# Entry
Amino acid sequence: MGASGPERGTAGSKAALTAGVIVWAAVVAGGLKLVADYKTTAGAARPAPARWPRESRLEPASGRETLVIFVHPKCACTRASLTELNIIINASAARARTIVVFLRPVGVEGGWERTDTWDYAATIPGATRFVDDGGVEAQRFGADTSGHVVLYDAGENLQFSGGITGSRGHAGDNVGRRIVLARLEARPADEDRHPVYGCPFADPSPGASGAERGPR
Amino acid sequence: MKTPTRRDELLGESLRALHVHTDRMFGWLLLVQWGLTIVLALYLSPLAWAGRVSSINVHVQIAIFLGAAINALPLALIRLRPGWWLTRHSIAVTQMLWSAMLIHMTGGRIETHFHVFGSLAFLAFYRDWRVIPTATLVVAADHLFRGFYWPESVYGIANPEWWRFLEHAWWVAFEDVVLLLGCRRSVREMVISADREAALERTKDNVEQQVQVRTEELDANVRRYRALVENSNAIPWEYDAVRGVVAYIAPQAGRLLGCADEGELRAGFLGRFVHPGDRERVRDRIRLAPVTAAREKGEQFDYRATTVDGRTLELRTILSPFHEGEPLRGITLDMTQQKKLESELLQAQKLESVGRLAAGVAHEINTPVQFVNDSIHFLRDGTKDLMGLVDTFRAAMRSVLDGAPAADVAVTTSEAEASADLPYLAEHLPKAIDRSLEGLDRVATIVRSMKEFAHPDAKEMAPADLNRAIQSTLTIARNEYKYVADVQTDLGELPLILCHLGDINQAVLNLIVNAAHAIGSVVEGTEARGRIVVRTRREGEFALISIADTGGGIPEAIRERIFEPFFTTKEVGKGTGQGLAIARSIIVEKHGGKLTFETEMGVGTTFTVHLPLAPVGVASPQGVAA
# Structure
């Protein structure tokens, strides 16, 4: 049955076909590789303050953990990060204060941050929404990429700083989620760092290419 | 190398058609998957953001360009080489790549893995088990590779067990086994189906060959029958009783009537070609045939037709029994020549009769002529005696004038008177004149009868006094029966009958002669005499003529045959066997009447003629024994 089908081609057409198949396989493999690279390329992240910064307008919880996530309201990856946050909140026995900080860059009109993710954040149990005008708070906590999470314990000491998704826009089990859950439950974690996958908070630099405009 | 059988060819054709069809279905599926991926990317993540600035999300670009790249090879092969083995294998690979993409995009959601199972089931449509392992290899490779390097994207968890890929592989293998068995079974069914189809084709070929042979035979038969039908003198036709039109008439009708246009012939046969004098009658006969007695037995009738060049033909139409739902069918015969021959035969028979009767007639004439002759001789002698007596009286008168003594003169004249026997002459001369006149009258009667009998008929029927005709016929036939029989007539009152009188005379003569011969054969050699009784009377719309004889009767064995032409039991020279046949022809066919007989051996036979008072010229019944 393998020989069924159209008449057998000439040697030339066979060679062309073989070449076509190889090129196709290479293109597809290359494309998949680019996708994988894109999905797993982490965004920029600076070290978060070891102690809760006093000048912050965000208020830490008194006598319990404070969990803060910085998100870009229009970033496609934000929903995956909030989904993971929701899972963490629901899975954790601890009652950490949860603040979802929505970036509102300078120069945008009011309500710019009111997106579906703004609404979704309201459904996370105990979560408080905060509008970060000009990204001041994000700067203060070292968050340059949407989905950046910082966890401070009851003594306002930094327990975790990083992402809680496995790759760009991917909800699901990942190392970041496990670390946060472990810290909330005062358990040791296998790792203490996890990259942040999301959109950058800063505008792209003038003259930068599309790829360069990505996470910083 | 084994020569492929028809089954193999059919199986190959079926599989190829199946592969081409499935290729095309997959072509659409690939396009749909690609389109949906683009739509989903545009819906879920149309833009990528950096602060306030947005740009097209890489997801959208991936959906468009990587989707296009993945689909490129299978779509090209589906377009260029549908049904080829590599085409479906490329489709299997591509479909599994789409599964991998979707599983990856959904973060390894278990639900998305159903795409793998659905795709494998879809690939089984090919009924080519080879594409299943190809697809499975891609799935296995994807799970193994990504499970090792990026487990979240395929299993949905960050650090799965090392054997997780085996679990996934197991379920795929499970479906593979089911599908492979399904493919095998399907192909087996296709083999059986191809077998049946090949058998059916063989049967069909045989049937077609038989049909061809039968069709050729049928064509030959049709040609034969057509040649027979269309080259015979009989003209078959069909009449559509519902539409009231001649649906078919054989082409020889056109030749006969001089009309080459079949349509005109069919449309105008009744209206144009049938003689105006017979047209209404013929039309009624045909139109009413399905609802009259003719429906069961058919019937026949004669009429005239006029050709395009004005000739008059004598036609006879014979209707077949009518069957409901079918056209009325019949044949038409050109009887012109036959009628002419019949007429000539009739005339010949008439002349033969005249010739045969001539001796008797001569004898009949001779007797009165003889006594007329004797009377005239007596008249001549008597007249001579009278003239001598006149001379004696004249001489006596002159003697008296001259002065001779009267007594002497008286003696002389008395002697002369006595010599001439004047009283005898006075008594017998008038009688002699009367006898002469009577004899001449008898001769005149015989001559007139002969003249009437032998006079050729006009073409048209004419009113006639049947009783007078019978008398005439008896007169000229007298010599045939007078030695053996006495004739008794009982002629009732009859109106004038419309008929061919000469023909009727002939028929009556034949019956009288037959009666005389029948009696003659009984009384021959004896002193006995038979009797012939001729009666006429009116009975309803018929005039009846019966001629009864006291002959020996007609034996049972020959009663059915007596009307057959040339059938005779008489000795050679006494009969030609035409008498009754001609009588039947005249009475039945020419006048639409009936000729029947009753007979009893040793007693005699009575023939009865039923003549319609107003004949319609149609004849269907035969002369029959009562």
